[in-house]
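Q: Structure tokens for this one, please.
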Amino acid sequence: MVEPVRLQSLDAQRGPSVTDQVFAFLYGQVVELVLPPGTKLSEVEVAKQMGVSRQPVRDAFYRLSQQGFLQIRPQRATVVTHISEQGVLQARFIRTALEMETVRAAAERLSEEQIASLDALVDRQIKAIEAGDKMLFHGLDDEFHRQICIMSNHEFAWALIRDSKAHMDRVRYLSLSFGAQSAIDEHKDIMVALKARDGDAAAAHMRVHLSGILAIIGRIRETHGQYFAME
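A: Here is the predicted structure, written as tokens:
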């Protein structure tokens, strides 16, 4: 009889790994355009400045490249990618298709506790804008959409969205100086539909919300053309 393999249980409460921390830091720097498109990055220099070994930096670089933020060039410097307008439009298409269905499903199954949790996220977004913390707002915006996917029992949809929205993220961040209030108002509209258990209305409001990028991108390109790829 074969003895069962004994594996050590993992600590579910374990904090983020070094790779996770490096990834989160670099993600924020790229989205906030502290590291603008065209910036060259070196594993050695990033590891030295962050006080970590090269392996977590290499792993973080790979994750960022998979999401479209970095171009890794063997034997040459890794470069922050320029924003692709085509990439933004593709991400918008993917998000709209998936999130209209997840919010429709959520309307049918949300508990009162889950609705209260989403309301709290919207309240935190309002406070973040009042405090002028655009990166916090950006993170809370993502969390609002992620939680709808989770609460609809379709968390896998967020994984697909997350891995396709890199170019969209930077445009969204640049738009917050003039578009944050509209985003909050649209989240409130979604919440009204969810509370009414009206899946069709929730999906319609989600479509309007995610389509806003179509009007925004031209304005952003006019003022920040240097960040965009030549396509």
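A few notes: DSSP finds nine helices and three strands in the chain. Residues 166-195 form the longest helix (30 residues).
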